Amino acid sequence: TLDQHWEMHVSPAARGQRIVQLVDRTGNYAAERMRVDFVANASHELRTPLASILGYIETLGDDKAGEDAQVRGRFLKIMFDEARRMQRLVEDLISLSRIEAEKYRLPDRAVDVGALIGEVRSELLDAQDKRSSDIVADIDLSVPAVAGDRAQLSQVLHNLIGNAMKYGRAGTPVTVKLWRDPAGMVRISVTDEGEGIAPEHLPRLTERFYRVDPGRSRAAGGTGLGLAIVKHIIERHRGRFDVASVVGTGTTVTILLPAHGQTGTVIKR
Ligand code: ADP
């Protein structure tokens, strides 16, 4: 018996015999299923804040709420936050589709990752409001440039350091390390002292919209797409990505990237 994932092709052969081919379509069905789920999830994620914004607009227009300056201010703040959430989601969706469209073009610019870490560190510290996580950068200055796409590698660092700040314990530092391993690969690790991730969640973290704690992710402004974006960018760079975590202690995400050129381009400082 054939289940829905198998296709049978029958073609005539010599002496009245038939050639029967069984083709396994499991991969196609899985890809199609993922695409359908993705569109459904993305629409749902957009619908929720949109419904909330429309509800507040209606209330402001309908009753006396709109005349009370304090209430109006509060509603506007909520509407602004919901619109920002939609904007972040749309930006992440655009990033994902761009990265996918470029997936077969190997990025080849020499990128100074040490300098990039410094830049992203300042941007994230400046954007931080009341929470006071410091970002400690431990950079080996002799690390060669990597072959990459600067904007995409900046996005990787933003997402990983941003997660470490979001899910780290308030007041504890985030540590970013850059070094070259004995095999000549460039390694970057981001470590936080947060609550960690239970082992059963680790294999699913890079799935689109997969969240360990959806309430916490949303409250922190997460889209659920950050690590999916990281995975795609690292794959495009022919690199590797690994998450190690201990519940109650913290998480370390490590990425490995090939150095630029065979021997590595030395960065002039
Ligand atoms: P989000 O926008 O929800 O942060 P991500 O794709 O960046 O989405 O991460 C997926 C999920 O992985 C998060 O919702 C969170 O549950 C978990 N996660 C990611 N980074 C960390 C971390 N440093 N510590 C604990 N949990 C994390």
Note down, in words, how this protein is organized.
Residues 41-261 form the Histidine kinase domain. One of its GO terms (biological process) is cellular response to phosphate starvation. Keywords: Kinase, Membrane, Phosphoprotein, Transferase, Transmembrane, Transmembrane helix, Two-component regulatory system. GO terms for molecular function: phosphoprotein phosphatase activity; phosphorelay sensor kinase activity. It comes from Sphingomonas glacialis. This protein has 269 residues and is α+β, with helices and mostly antiparallel strands. It contains six helices and nine strands. The protein has helices at 26-62, 69-101, 113-127, 150-167, 214-219, 226-236, and strands at residues 6-12, 18-24, 109-111, 135-139, 146-148, 174-180, 186-192, 240-246, 250-257. The chain has a five-stranded mixed sheet, covered by helices on one side. A two-stranded antiparallel ribbon has the order 1-2. Strands 3-5 form a two-stranded antiparallel sheet. The longest helix is centred in the N-terminal third of the chain and has 37 residues, at 26-62. It is flat. The relative contact order is 0.12. The chain binds adenosine-5'-diphosphate. Adenosine-5'-diphosphate (ADP) binds at residues 159, 163-164, 167, 192, 194, 197, 205, 210-213, 217, 222-228, 251. The site of adenosine-5'-diphosphate has 21 residues, from α4 and α6.
